[in-house]
Every structure is written in structure tokens, then in C-alpha cells.
Amino acid sequence: MAVPTHKTSKTKKRMRRGHIKLQVPGMSACPNCGELRKSHYVCPNCGFYDGRQVIKTNNK
């Protein structure tokens, strides 16, 4: 069975694991109210999607 000859340093280990991280979702400004929202989702602030009211909200 293969056994590593030398210990893997912290730097080498962290370089290998550089892609393992949390990712921020793609946010865009709502054209109706200007709040940040996820792309292709109904705006939780005003309830608009694709230029029309989809859900009723109490915010004005």
C-alpha cells in the first residue's frame, strides 16, 4: 500500500481545497423597486416579475 513519504504542508492542502467554499447567489436589482433579488425570481419586496404584479404584498 502506498504511503506518503513527506507530510503535506498546510499551504499545499489549502491550495488543493481552494474551490471548496460558499458561493454568493447571482443578485440583480429589481427594475420596479430597485431592491436586490435573485435572478429569475419574483421580487419579495414588491411582488413583481417580468413587468407585472405576480403576488400581492403590503409594501408600497
UniProtKB/TrEMBL annotation:
InterPro entries in alphabetical order: Ribosomal_bL32, Ribosomal_bL32_bact, Ribosomal_zn-bd
Q: Which Pfam families match?
A: Ribosomal_L32p (PF01783)
Give the UniProt entry's GO cellular component terms.
Answer: large ribosomal subunit
Supply the alphabetized keyword list.
Ribonucleoprotein, Ribosomal protein
Q: Does the keyword Ribosomal protein apply?
A: yes
Name any Gene Ontology BP term: translation
Q: Does the keyword Signal apply?
A: no
GO-annotated molecular function: structural constituent of ribosome
**Which protein family is named in the record?**
Belongs to the bacterial ribosomal protein bL32 family.
Protein name per UniProt: Large ribosomal subunit protein bL32
